[in-house]
DNA sequence: TATGAATGAGCCTTCATTCAT
DNA sequence: TATGAATGAAGGCTCATTCAT
């Protein structure tokens, strides 16, 4: 018989834990992991230090959870798009639009991801990299499928295409602002369009021949 | 008869200052700005703390100098390529190859640049952003020139094209390793090729139509 | 069954805070504010640095508390004597004896007060000066009352009389030693006697005419 | 054949030394001895650190010189007044006026004297105290002479009278401002008048009997 | 006589974490 | 489940002083 008697159970059961993760995400994105003190996090979450150490083993633990949450979501979504029916070009396009729109919806997560990787404990860091690499390979396999079927040019290694595109994705947190005229999906369509176009078979690697 | 009499005086005139900047660059890239202690920097440079504070006003000052050095170099190089004669596609291609090769040659600088911006004092941060914006605009103007002259597609805003491409550039530090099979110029040619291809006039924005 | 159950809770409720203030007072008086390190204070109080920064925001904060304590006590005592019934000469005499005896009882506070004022933050300094000025004015009004009623000579501005007398008070810390033959009240009676005599109406300002 | 060829020799021979002492005096009075860095002193004097360490053995040495200068001047002046002809009351009065006027003319010296004593090396401190004590005794002997000759009341120890009066003198630095309406001599006459009056023979030690 | 780069010890403060309650 | 006092290590920085020139 706990607090779930009234209100949505999910949000009532672990409100402290969620508030802590939310506050930590916002602060880590704004000021960096090392630039944020545990005191600031618990103050922003409206709890005390003792409470935080009840739910999380350490400050690093908070960061680890944030990474886990991001990776879980990204993997789930990519799987859905990659496993969908339809031509490979469409699947790549849709997955590309989605990853950009999703990244923009969770821009704080993205800011943290590439800025704070080196703060994780070595083993955690390796685990994150491994999971990330699986994600990369999933996307690369899609590209390679397009290359095998002659839908995409094959003079650029598929791995390199993925690094090319995901650079643009990861960079979003450094320039995108919600106040601008373009929504996340707008950006997604533009970027995915550039990606698909860049993969069209070409005559040569140099500057446009025409 | 040492090198300072007639030879290159660079290594003898400011050896301590240069050693400090070098050590700081390496360490900041490896462990982050906040993860690196002044003690570690001076130990790596083989001097004492007092010496560091003789040449730099603070730890922040070291970071500021690193940013200034990067910006100066990047601006100089882009100007050279943008002002060169020849068709706009060639100029964009050459500049794109160069920025990637140069970034890879100075990968530590690149790692620091986008990870530690928020550690700079607000005014310094603004100055860096302003200088960075000028660089962005210089590149964007090249793209826009190509769009005006119908060499490039014009259904994607030139600013967005620049953000798309430079995401890939800035991301290099997160995956490129010198031990791989591809040199900086190799990567540059591949990425610049993808960029140029992505800018070819297209029928529509969706997944490749034909 | 310790003192905190029913006895005086003072020693048990805030032992660390009080020990810190006591140690700081003693050391600041001996070696000056800048000549005393936080390390020395916490060692003398038998706690760690972290504990000190749990109770006080900074080393300056300790000094500020010492000033506040002194000012509170002095103001309270002067008010009591000034508001007492009886002729003005008696009230001035009693207040003068008391301030001297009290100063001698808290000689460390007195040593700190006039030696370390310039170490306070500008705003704190102003607040202390303002409170000190109110004290001065309270005493001055007593003197002025005596001048108006012809009990005291009125050829010396009352403000100047107060500065004259309180110089002697503040100077106590520089020469008084408890080992001497005279108690605080002894000194108080002598100094108050000199003050009262100096205020007797006179023929002229020059050297004694008779 | 040194720089004394042009200009007043005295001021030309040791201009650096004098400028350093002047700058140090001003800064020590403003910010305290420990609150003033050697760098600030040499900057204010317009010389370099090396120059300072050429003329003075240490920062402490500067302070020692300032104390020596003050003591020398005060002793000289008191001697002149004490050894003058005339009644003892007049000599005390004149000496009292002079010490106040002189103190006000050199208020920075006075501020330093009582605030920074504890910064001197133990031996220097003892030497200063000894010299100071000789000064005190010289003045006390004047008072005692007046008591022996029945010009002054003798129910207050002469030593105490001197401590009483010199408290007022030393306190000047804490409240006197040149912008006020009263000159140094004005204050001197008022304070000396209060002193002389306070020394008139009285009926009893208590509050004025009338 | 004067320079200024370099030293090295020490200072104030912050902070993640623990633990008795 | 939660508190908050207390710890202890580490961090950035200042500064009087020295020394080769």
TrEMBL record, chains A, B, C, D:
<dbReference type="Pfam" id="PF17932">
    <property type="entry name" value="TetR_C_24"/>
</dbReference>
<protein>
    <submittedName>
        <fullName>TetR/AcrR family transcriptional regulator</fullName>
    </submittedName>
</protein>
<dbReference type="InterPro" id="IPR036271">
    <property type="entry name" value="Tet_transcr_reg_TetR-rel_C_sf"/>
</dbReference>
<keyword id="KW-0678">Repressor</keyword>
<feature type="DNA-binding region" description="H-T-H motif">
    <location>
        <begin position="37"/>
        <end position="56"/>
    </location>
</feature>
<keyword id="KW-0238">DNA-binding</keyword>
<dbReference type="InterPro" id="IPR023772">
    <property type="entry name" value="DNA-bd_HTH_TetR-type_CS"/>
</dbReference>
<dbReference type="GO" id="GO:0000976">
    <property type="term" value="F:transcription cis-regulatory region binding"/>
</dbReference>
<feature type="domain" description="HTH tetR-type">
    <location>
        <begin position="14"/>
        <end position="74"/>
    </location>
</feature>
<dbReference type="Pfam" id="PF00440">
    <property type="entry name" value="TetR_N"/>
</dbReference>
<dbReference type="InterPro" id="IPR041490">
    <property type="entry name" value="KstR2_TetR_C"/>
</dbReference>
<keyword id="KW-0805">Transcription regulation</keyword>
<dbReference type="GO" id="GO:0003700">
    <property type="term" value="F:DNA-binding transcription factor activity"/>
</dbReference>
<keyword id="KW-0804">Transcription</keyword>
<dbReference type="GO" id="GO:0045892">
    <property type="term" value="P:negative regulation of DNA-templated transcription"/>
</dbReference>
<dbReference type="InterPro" id="IPR050109">
    <property type="entry name" value="HTH-type_TetR-like_transc_reg"/>
</dbReference>
<dbReference type="InterPro" id="IPR009057">
    <property type="entry name" value="Homeodomain-like_sf"/>
</dbReference>
<dbReference type="InterPro" id="IPR001647">
    <property type="entry name" value="HTH_TetR"/>
</dbReference>
């Amino acid at each position: 018989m706990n607090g779930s008697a009234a209100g949505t159970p999910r949000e009532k059961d672990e409100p402290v834990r969620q508030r802590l993760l939310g506050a930590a995400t916002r602060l880590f994105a704004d000021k960096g992991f090392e630039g944020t003190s545990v005191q600031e996090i618990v103050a922003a979450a409206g709890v005390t230090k003792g409470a935080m150490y009840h739910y999380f083993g350490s400050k690093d633990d908070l960061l680890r959870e944030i990474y886990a949450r991001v990776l879980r979501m990204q993997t789930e979504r990519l799987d859905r798009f990659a496993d969908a029916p339809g031509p490979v070009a469409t699947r790549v396009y849709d997955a590309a639009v989605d990853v950009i729109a999703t990244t923009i919806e969770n821009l704080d997560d993205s800011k943290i991801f590439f800025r704070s990787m080196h703060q994780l404990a070595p083993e955690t860091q390796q685990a994150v990299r491994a999971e990330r690499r699986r994600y990369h390979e999933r996307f690369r396999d899609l590209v390679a499928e397009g290359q095998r079927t002659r839908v995409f040019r094959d003079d650029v290694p598929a791995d390199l295409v993925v690094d090319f595109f995901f650079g643009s994705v990861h960079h979003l947190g450094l320039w995108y602002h919600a106040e601008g005229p373009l929504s996340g999906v707008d950006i997604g369509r533009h970027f995915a369009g550039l990606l698909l176009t860049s993969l069209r078979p070409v005559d040569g690697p140099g500057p446009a021949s025409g």
